[in-house]
Design brief:
Chains A, B: InterPro entries: HTH_LacI (IPR000843), LacI/GalR-like_sensor (IPR046335), Lambda_DNA-bd_dom_sf (IPR010982), Peripla_BP_I (IPR028082). Chains A, B: GO terms for molecular function: DNA binding. Chains A, B: This is DNA-binding LacI/PurR family transcriptional regulator. Chains A, B: Keywords: DNA-binding, Transcription, Transcription regulation. 2 copies of one chain form a homodimer. With about 350 residues, chain A is of the alpha/beta class. Among the domains of chain A are: about 50 residues, Orthogonal Bundle (434 Repressor (Amino-terminal Domain)), CATH 1.10.260; about 130 residues, Response regulator (Rossmann fold), CATH 3.40.50. In chain A, about 40% of the residues lie in helices and about 15% in strands. In chain A, strands 2-1-3-4-5-11 form a 6-stranded parallel β-sheet, with helices on both faces. Chain A has a 6-stranded mixed β-sheet with strand order 7-6-8-9-10-12, sandwiched between helices. In chain A, helix 8 links the parallel strand 6 and strand 7. The first copy, chain A, is globular and about 70 Å long. The first copy, chain A, starts with 8 loop residues before the first helix and ends in a 15-residue tail after the last strand. The interface between A and B is large, with 61 and 62 residues.
Chain lengths: ~350, ~350
């Protein structure tokens, strides 16, 4: 750049030796920062001539200082097969807003894009596309217009694209399967969904490999992604027909259907059947029994995505995909009670 | 205005005699519009010289063509007492995005505002504040900066403010109480939360008045809005100590705790206790038993709020508060089975 770029909140943070969040707190008078740090931040801000930006007046930088977020949900949430992951998406969205704010960026929530003209209507420096489908058309639109884009979740067919952040699905799946096996399960099935998001695709592949290494025939049932209730129940019935002693359910919305069908058939969870679900939620925590679940850390995912996008907007080299580590919360649904009835 | 305002999508819609959505579909080539309508829209757009705007380049209009949305949730969703209303908030947010889009407005998702400087960082023509607290400070910030604002939910202490849209809480409460009474309930309690949002405040007042008209002593238990799980369980236990035969639970997050405590005490729902909840959700629909719930119509609420805000931005007179009608979905939790055990 010919002209000096104007200082950003991160520059102040670096000079003051604190986090961007701390700078934000000090400059906005939030008041939980000790006096010494506060003085250091103020001095750094003054020295650099830092000024908070206004999102639509990026005149000095020639930028809109605005990034766009594209969730995979539209206005008609009730019809969406991901309805039960709402807690995940809302946490992701709110953390994206806060992370953008700490980077002096405003966050535009974009509507479902029906064509390039839709995207052209928004002045964004870059976009975050959540849960890309294979060869996702939304990503293609950003690329077509030359607007930097990163995805949360990997586009499984764009194998050369390094610009993504995703929870570690393969690692999570291995962790869950090992956990179920250690709890005594011998016939572990997977109940998932027929949709090409990397969270599901990687879980399926890992499951097949895991079963293959043990010489076990995989029991994999994929629900149709439409007709929420009926396909959940149909898929749950189909997987239980295989008489598994454990089921890993990567998509959260299928778990309640599985519990219901199991109850109707007199299959006790966890006595007869261990269950683990792929996306943690309040529902998983308060279900009867509480469900073992993978915590995808949507907060870190959002923050890493904003960080990666800004790196890309600023012309950085690909910093490689970023895999977000997950945590398995072990709850009653996968804890075999000593002395409980086992299937033969 | 001295200069001719540039035509907006609504102007095209009016001239073509179709909805803004149809105009948007035609101009973006979505393709589910018949040829005659398509031709009419295209002709209208050409005649008016309509051009889609770019959110951050409101040079012609002197406006940012951007509105801000402030949800009552921050990044740390798990700690929030409204965690179970996530489906409502996400539906509200996505419908706000789409409604804004149809009005040629981009939607900025605003972070929690800690002070005026936070708000100054965003160039928005107006803001929508969701679920204002009494004398809400976020609303005060917009007023202080002279930025038009509307609220979703009423600020119960700003009684002179006509700029709000809200689901009809009083009407919904009356509808639920009448429904429970018609199902045979004689000791109807309310389990709610101690927070000053109009949805809850109006429900409580309506309940007291309803009970007063019948000469019934109200049984009203308010949970603390913090410590999600423990306060839900404590409040549920307290309300059941009163041995009601029905409970109306305006805040969605208290319903699952009530069901759990009832189960532990051997109180059968609906045999011994009818239950109705105030905010419909997938959880309510798939609960065991499925819960009678009020559908707040977040889609209409969002659209009315965007409409009202744009009216205010354009200098319109107060068009009065807008009450959104609700629908009661009657499910198993409030249907007294013939012959089932009744409490004395």
């Amino acid at each position: 750049m010919a002209s000096q770029p104007r200082p950003r909140i991160r520059d102040v943070a670096e000079v003051a030796g604190v986090s961007a969040t701390t700078v934000s707190h000090v400059l906005n008078g939030k008041g939980r920062v000790d006096a010494a740090t506060r003085a250091r931040v103020t001095a750094a801000a003054e020295r650099l001539g830092y000024r908070p930006n206004s999102n639509a007046k990026g005149l000095r930088s020639g930028r809109a200082d605005t990034i766009g977020l594209l969730l995979p949900v539209g206005a008609d949430l009730e019809q969406a097969h991901h309805v039960l992951a709402v807690e995940f998406y809302l946490t992701l969205a709110m953390n994206t807003v806060e992370a953008a704010f700490e980077h002096d960026q405003a966050l535009l929530q974009l509507p479902p894009l029906r064509g390039l003209d839709d995207l052209r209507r928004f002045s964004v420096d870059g976009g975050i596309v959540v849960d890309p489908l294979p060869l996702d058309t939304r990503v293609a639109m950003f690329n077509e217009l030359g607007v930097p884009v990163v995805t949360i979740g990997r586009d499984i067919l764009r194998t050369q694209d390094p610009w993504w952040v995703a929870a570690d699905s393969a690692g999570s799946t291995g962790m869950v399967l090992d956990h179920l096996a250690e709890a005594g399960a011998r016939r572990i099935a997977m109940l998932s969904v027929d949709i090409g998001w990397s969270w599901f695709a990687d879980a399926q592949q890992t499951y097949r490999e895991w079963a293959g290494r043990r010489g076990i025939e995989p029991i994999l049932v994929l629900a149709r992604p439409d007709k929420l209730e009926s396909s959940a129940v149909a898929a749950a019935a189909e997987v239980l027909d295989h008489r598994p002693d454990a089921v890993y359910v990567p998509p959260q919305w299928l778990a309640s259907g599985l519990l219901r069908v199991a109850r109707e058939r007199g299959v006790d969870v966890p006595g007869d059947l261990l269950v683990s679900v792929g996306v943690d939620s309040h529902l998983a925590r308060t279900s009867e029994p509480p469900l073992t679940a993978v915590d995808l850390d949507p907060a870190s995912t959002a923050r890493q995505a904003v960080d990666l996008l800004i790196h890309r907007i600023e012309g950085g080299e690909p910093a490689g995909p970023r895999l977000i580590p997950t945590t398995l919360h072990s709850r009653a649904s996968s804890l075999r009670t000593p002395g409980a009835a086992h299937r033969p």
